[in-house]
Amino acid sequence: MKLSINMAMTLDGKVVRPDGRWYGLTSKDDKHQMDVYRSQSDALIIGKNSIINDNPVVKIRAFPNVLNPRPVILVRKGSLPINKHVFEESDHIPLVICTKVNLKEIKTDLENRAEIFALDSEDIDPKKVTGILKRKGYKNVLLEGGPKLNFSFLEGDLVDRVYITLVPYIIGKNGLPGIADQSIELPKFDQNAWKLTSSTTKGNEVFLTYEK
Ligand SMILES: NC(=O)c1ccc[n+]([C@@H]2O[C@H](COP(=O)([O-])OP(=O)(O)OC[C@H]3O[C@@H](n4cnc5c(N)ncnc54)[C@H](OP(=O)(O)O)[C@@H]3O)[C@@H](O)[C@H]2O)c1
């Protein structure tokens, strides 16, 4: 199974606006490119905060007859509101992976809207997530952030590829996250250079692909 991160980033390396959300900074070309990556994927992991803050549309719009990847959501604490696009307009019932701590709450809120898989732990180990997805037969998994979730999968050495769109803005404000965000650094980050395998430009944006 291949796992690819896909993120849009400003010229100063930020992936959220000062209000903590991401909107209005990606062009039509970037949305089209995102649909290309999605159309090549069979599962799509989306971060809990990203769903709450951005309510992303999960349907592929550029290619009408293509099957959308199955949404996968990881929730360690609490639950998720059901009035989000991911529960309303996907081709597949989303897979929600939770813990023994919030299983009851998740069942109450999402029983008829999602397949629920509870881990017998209080945290969600990303290795367990990739194990579940492999067993379900998914071959190409796209991880569309946010930065906290990206960090967990990178820390677990589970990411094979990173797609980055460079968008032509500079925000400047300090403290805003980049594509991976935690209070610690990734182990041996300076010994693990990623390999640039593709770079294309469209309009004012650059589309980069890095592989391990
Ligand atoms: N520029 C872009 O392309 C792009 C793309 C996506 C998102 N974003 C931005 O990113 C922002 C959110 O990013 P974020 O980093 O705050 O949140 P996130 O990565 O979307 O979600 C993180 C949350 O997921 C839950 N989670 C479950 N298992 C986890 C695990 N193993 N590791 C880490 N988290 C786990 C945790 O919540 P619980 O502990 O409560 O369960 C955690 O707080 C959004 O507001 C959006 O604007 C930007």
Give the SSE map.
Layout: E1 2-10, H1 28-39, E2 43-46, H2 48-54, E3 70-74, H3 85-88, E4 95-98, H4 103-110, E5 115-118, H5 126-135, E6 140-143, H6 147-155, E7 161-167, E8 195-202, E9 205-211
Parallel strand pairs: 1-6, 1-7, 2-3, 2-6, 3-4, 4-5
Antiparallel strand pairs: 7-9, 8-9
Bound molecules: NADP nicotinamide-adenine-dinucleotide phosphate (NAP).
NADP nicotinamide-adenine-dinucleotide phosphate binds at residues 7-8, 15-16, 20-22, 47-50, 53-54, 74-78, 124, 126, 144-149, 152, 181.
**Tally of individual domains:** 1
Q: What top-tier CATH class fits best?
A: Alpha Beta
- According to DSSP, the number of beta strands is 9
The helix-strand sequence is: EHEHEHEHEHEHEEE
> How much helix, percentage-wise, in residues?
10-25%
Strands ordered across the widest β-sheet = 5-4-3-2-6-1-7-9-8
Summing up helix and strand content along with how strands pair, one would put the structural category as alpha/beta
CATH architecture: 3-Layer(aba) Sandwich
Domain Bacterial bifunctional deaminase-reductase C-terminal: 2-206
Keywords: NADP, Oxidoreductase
InterPro entries: DHFR-like_dom_sf, RibDG_C, Riboflavin_Biosynth_HTPR
Pathway: Cofactor biosynthesis; riboflavin biosynthesis
Explain how this protein is built.
The chain has helices at residues 28-39, 48-54, 85-88, 103-110, 126-135, 147-155, and strands at 2-10, 43-46, 70-74, 95-98, 115-118, 140-143, 161-167, 195-202, 205-211. A nine-stranded mixed sheet has the order 5-4-3-2-6-1-7-9-8. The radius of gyration is 17 Å and the shape is globular. The protein starts with a strand and ends with a strand. The chain has six helices and nine strands; from the N terminus they run βαβαβαβαβαβαβββ. It has one domain: Dihydrofolate Reductase, subunit A, CATH 3.40.430.10. Helices cover 24% and strands 25% of the residues. It is an alpha/beta fold and 212 residues long. The chain binds NADP nicotinamide-adenine-dinucleotide phosphate.
